[in-house]
Amino acid sequence: MELSNVLPWVQIILSVLLIIGVLMQQSGTELGGAFGGGDGSATYHKKRGAEKFFFVFTIVVAVLFAVSILISIFI
Length: 75
Description:
Elements: H1 3-24, H2 31-34, H3 50-74
Helix pairs in contact: 1-3
């Protein structure tokens, strides 16, 4: 099996995992808060347990997805 045949399947799996990781995270703010329009009532808290796992999981999967895209460009 060549890498050029396997890479699209890897990208599909990573994209599904990335979607799952994003959807499983708790939404801390509404859309306005994401762009700096929050009302200031949100308090800072430390990520723990499942929240921290999905946060790190999403970052790792996103980096792996970006690397797979870069690899597919140069193959």
